[in-house]
Amino acid sequence: MSAQTLYDKLWNSHLVRQDADGTALIYIDRQLVHEVTSPQAFEGLRIAQRKPWRIASMLAVPDHNVPTANRAAGITDPVSRLQVETLDANCAEFGITEFKMGDIRQGVVHVIGPEQGATLPGMTVVCGDSHTSTHGAFAALAHGIGTSEVEHVMATQCLVAKKSKSMLVKVEGVLGGGVTAKDIALAVIGQVGTAGGTGYAIEFAGSAVRALSMEGRMTLCNMAIEAGARAGMIAADETTFAYLKGRPYAPQGEQWELAVAEWRKLHSDEGAVFDATLEINASTIRPQVTWGTSPEMVTSIDGRVPNPADIADPVKRGDTERALQYMGLTANTPISQIMIDKVFIGSCTNGRIEDMRAAAAVAKGKKVAANVKLAMVVPGSGLVKAQAEAEGLDKILVEAGFEWRDPGCSMCLAMNDDKLAAGERCASTSNRNFEGRQGMGGRTHLVSPEMAAAAAIAGHFVDVSKI
Amino acid sequence: MEKFTLLDGLVVPLDRANVDTDAIIPKQFLKSIKRSGFGPNAFDEWRYLDHGEPGQDCSSRPINPDFVLNQPRYQGAQVLLARENFGCGSSREHAPWALADYGFRVIIAPSFADIFFNNSFKNGMLPIRLSAEQVDALFKRVEAAVGFRLVVDLEKQTITQPDGEVISFEVDPFRKHCLLNGLDDIGLTLQHTAEISAFEAKHRAAQPWL
Ligand code: SF4
Fold first, then answer.
1. Mean pLDDT of chain B
2. What pLDDT was estimated at residue A467?
3. A243, A328, A335, B130: least buried by Cβ within 10 Å?
4. E strand or H helix at A31, and its extent?
5. What's phi and psi for A125, nearest 5 deg?
6. Distance, CA of A324 to CA of A305 (rounded, Å)
7. What is the DSSP letter of A373?
8. Of A158, A62, B105, which Cα lies nearest the Cα of A145?
């Protein structure tokens, strides 16, 4: 057999059938469910009197609407509350495992799946959420789907799909000090653009990717969608196995050995051909900061806000002008002179234990600057929170003036009470800087947790590699 | 699902690239547990001058007269003309729900984000990819002629302009079949139940930890 890519292997091993035109049915091993994109799917099942095909393949959690403070009081917004209650009721009715709001295992859906070992190498994983690409870090084929597809997978255990093209993003070399997986992700998006990966499944490879922890790999795959790719993935290796061993949903004992033997095959073969390849030298990547309203509007901490007058393409120039106006930025301003009002550390991109540690390391013994009205740290799950507290990270952060919250999506998309007011500028470790994403009129700059914590202390963006 | 065969519709030009699903339907409307009623909040932050919340009566809200959808000449439009990478960002199906509820049946752009593209078909809308030049030419014509309409024929895969000029477009045969007949994907897939069960048995025997 000819050399296969990791994507080929995952696709072929889940192919139930394929029509002559390429339309295929792909078997789905794991479906993660959250409160925002599932109510209409459950409703659809009920109306058609259909039952879920394989209840054990599903795991549900409320995350988008949950409060991150004063949780004992419940959810005050009645509309949010109804959505979470609807999830609870649907899971109870169909017999689906759910980590409810009071459960220590509750958290952002893309944090809890891997944390529980519910995401395993060789799986197909779907969720009604575009950042499902996160799970590809485990050599899984994982992508976000719409609500109609959520219902389709519930009813048939399959997804109607066509094979994507494949793209290899190879990051070779060693990352400089203060440079993280988040910076790789933003640098890649800056190069390929938010539509550059459309129609592709991206595999991240190269020595800099191999050197990342699972947390870092998840951060990288998480943002594949911001490059337009529905799926991002990384080959399985010892780092993958070490992370998964002993997790509640991971195989145990003899099964574990068998599984690992199988998982060792999950890499692209020597000589496998990709439809597109991008090579990046890790040592050239500097800490990244977005300046605009799309993740591709990004530069490094050494950079400046662009000048629309320098842009020849009229559509691009118009977009840049509009972005600068929305962001309240002046052309040519050095990034390091941009003052911030708020800081958000968390989300499925950067809400894991390593991110908490990184933020605490920068904040230790320092104070949040006076011009920063709110600096909040939101762990990605109850277990991340407990681990961080066991390590004393919460104390360091609180001491420095950060707020330490309960787990959820929080200000990543501001569906709960955590939001920016119009005109407020935020250093955020989330993944989207779209207009209004963190609150109507709010201005988001995407950065790594290290950079966000450093900005909180300085009151403006600073080069974390120099502190 | 509503069938799509032929549409003779008024066109509205939305001259922005990378229109994301947060812009198409802001997150506060994602709290609904229903599938319908999102139309009045499509493009909410661009369409209205105040901040929208679910459950409001939108007819009494201050509208932004500069936003293209609010201009009198484009009222009742069913064809949305857009720039590249339309529908990027979040996978929320509320975006196509909102556009369909608003009354759009066809979206024409040089490129679409994958998830949005798929979601549109499942909601009786036809997303059409044309070349950047073709889209650019359409923008110029729509803006130049009040009441500019297009006739979109899915069976023939053609778009006919007012002067009779015809543009042909590509569409996936399976999606076309479903849209022409208003077929529900789940029903179609369940015709393959035996194949799925056989696959599942084999797959799980090989990897019992799944
Ligand atoms: S943390 Fe943000 S990106 Fe991740 S699932 Fe929640 S809302 Fe979506």
1. 95
2. 83
3. A328
4. strand A30-33
5. -125, 135
6. 8
7. S
8. A158
What token pair was written down for A337? 């002179």
pLDDT band at A370 (very low <50, low <70, confident <90, very high): very high
What DSSP line would sit under A106-165, residue for residue?
A: -B-HHHHHHHTT-S-TT-EEEESSGGGGGGGGGS-EEEE--HHHHHHHHHHSEEEE-PPE
Give, using CA atoms, the residue closest to atom 4 of ligand 1. A348
Q: In this model, does residue A1 exceed pLDDT 70?
A: no
pLDDT per position as a tens digit, A28-63: 999 999 999 999 999 999 988 899 999 999 999 999
Question: Residue A451 in contact with residue A423, Cβ under 8 Å?
Answer: no
Ligand 1 pocket: which of A33, A182, A431 to mutate (most atoms within 8 A of CB): A431
Tokens, residue B187: 């029903």
Which residues have any ligand 1 atom within 6 Å of their CB?
Answer: A 63-64, 108-110, 129, 131, 347-348, 409, 412-413, 430-431
Distance B27 CA to ligand 1 centre (A): 12
A199 contacts on B by Cβ (under 8 Å): 114
Closest listed residue to residue B161, CA positions, set B180, B144, B173: B144
| Residue A277, CB-side half-sphere exposure with 13 Å CA sphere | 9
Classify residue A64 by burial, with Cβ atoms within 10 Å: 0-12, 13-18, 19+: buried
Amino acid at A72: A
**Chain A residues lying within 8 Å of B85, measured CB to CB:** 194-195, 198, 228
* Neighbour order of strands in the sheet with A374-377: A403-404, A374-377, A342-345, A425-428, A443-446
